Amino acid sequence: MRPMREKFGSKLGAVLAAAGSAVGLGNIWRFPIETGRNGGAAFILIYIGCIFLIGLPVMLSEFVIGRSSQCNTAGAYRKLAPGTQWKWVGRLGVLTGFVIMSYYVVVAGWTIQYAWLALTNQFAGRTAEDFPVIFNNFATNPWQPIVCLVIFVWLTHYVIVKGVTRGIERWSKILMPLLFVLVFILVVASVCMPGAGEGLRFLLQPDFSKVNSVVALNAMGQAFYSLSLGMGALCTYASYFDKQISLSRAAMNICLIDTLIALMAGFIIFPAASAAGYRLQSGDIGASLLFITLPNVFQQAFAAVPLLSYVFSLLFYLLIILAALTSTISLHEVVTSYMTEEFGFKRSRAALIETVTCMLLGCLCSLSFGPLRGIKLAGLTIFDLFDWTSSNLLLPIGGMLISLFVGWYLKRELVRNELTNYGTLRLRGLRVLIFILRFVAPLAILGILLNQLHLF
Ligand code: TRP
What we know:
mainly alpha, 75% helix, binds tryptophan
């Protein structure tokens, strides 16, 4: 006999856990970079459109698959489509989970180091020339980043072995509110800086002359990544949802929270950057944003009051740690639940296997900034390869297959039952939803895929 499957104990816990998965480095690191690169306010408007037009329907699909099957993501397809090849969609998701986790923890580990540097006041008195040096010395060091990454994976492991209710749900309920508070404080501080106006204008005044199809596709890719779609993370979480939860309301709330946090991250970063004298239009905000630009921004923007620089930097890196942690928890859970349910491992054993594997792969990714810099495939280092394949290839392919599965394969009755909780909730727009899942989302995602392959 299998032990009873665990469940999230409350609606709030379920929504916060799923929102925790969505809110992560994608919101605080990738979103501002993409916004900067694609011209600001106009990009944001398109992004919001993508979230609700494509992201929300695909999220609902993952929810339907997860909750109706009550299984890990690979088991879900076996159960809903027995004897077919759809099982590969679930397996692809588990593989993607491994790949994302392995490079994600490298960057997450860096944030631990930066929180430490902030705590011990090591940014004080530094100038713009110092920060690239600090970062390069750290990232290329063979062991320091690995120590940080190991700490980060252990934190994740600690939560995962406690289980769904006492681990994931409990910690989501602690970490997410903390995250909201931190974001809020930082937005207020940033917007009030002298010189913040330029940054606000960049975020609020759309310049549609910059919009073209590439910008739109970038917005869609970002929306997808940010919502954690395409690999069964939300499908796995939904399998722990209670039958009473309204899936459409939960999905709507998660999309709103994720978008709000991304926007607020923008309102932290751009006003502070303009206050520190960066020119936003000319691409000053780039990939080195979190670890080179921002620590300098925090120093310069509050140059008159060093205590504020100290507090701001420390809170900011704590914020990123929290956001990244709730995301790695969900990545970890995809693999852990897969191994427990498909191979009958004990939870602690399954978690340990994933933890150790990710540490090893994570080390490879980390070392590819230093000693293993020379190892390249198609011009990409190991880290870039993991990042590129997962975000640009595996997630879109997974997302496309998920929407095709629900749009074409699943019985419409099953979808309706899940979305209405067997007739107890009202449902409008099922037709529209199915239409989007059949045609609009797959084509749009195909667009993202081709766009990214072309850039490659
Ligand atoms: N959404 C996460 C973020 O914004 C990143 C992510 C992408 C993710 N796919 C995922 C997290 C799957 C968990 C599961 O940082």
